[in-house]
């Protein structure tokens, strides 16, 4: 096992088209967005925080009709895809996920950390590498519950917990 926590033959590479890291098996020559089976998720979390947590710079022009938001996602076993860069298979219950995200919300609201800082190590979305930043999106681009919450925020505001088929989110409107 390497310092990244990935099994033998796997490495982290960077997608130029999505500007995100992914996992590549150098023997089988296959790639995937989620960590492979047998990954040491604690080692991977630390490795990714050090090597793949750069934030994207601010864009100068906001596209018409679009907003920019960041989020922190906590998945559970009933999520649409119960896997992430942090865990190859997510087994926590929805109730356990709710307790986790509510604890994250408390830390953010009390000022002990920011959503972006926490997202880098705790979000189950691959946007964690960009401090949860999802970039610009318009109406119809995201799941309805997520979109309604994000468009209902003013820049700098954070939502309460939002539930979608993907899991539980905290959303911060950036622009």
TrEMBL record:
Protein name: Uncharacterized protein
Species in which this protein is naturally found: Nemania bipapillata
């Amino acid at each position: 096992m390497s310092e990244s926590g990935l099994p033998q033959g796997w490495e982290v590479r960077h997608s130029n088209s999505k500007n995100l890291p992914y996992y590549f098996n150098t023997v089988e020559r296959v790639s995937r967005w989620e960590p492979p089976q047998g990954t040491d998720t604690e080692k991977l979390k630390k490795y990714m925080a050090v090597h793949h947590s750069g934030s994207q710079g601010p864009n100068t022009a906001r596209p018409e009709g679009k907003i920019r938001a960041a989020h922190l996602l906590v998945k559970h076993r009933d999520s649409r895809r119960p896997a992430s860069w942090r865990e190859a298979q997510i087994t926590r219950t929805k109730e356990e996920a709710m307790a986790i995200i509510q604890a994250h919300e408390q830390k953010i609201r009390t000022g002990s950390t920011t959503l972006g800082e926490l997202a880098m190590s705790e979000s189950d979305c691959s946007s964690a590498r960009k401090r949860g930043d999802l970039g610009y999106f318009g109406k119809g681009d995201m799941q309805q519950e997520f979109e309604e919450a994000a468009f209902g925020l003013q820049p700098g505001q954070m939502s309460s917990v939002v539930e979608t088929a993907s899991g539980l989110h905290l959303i911060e409107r950036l622009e």
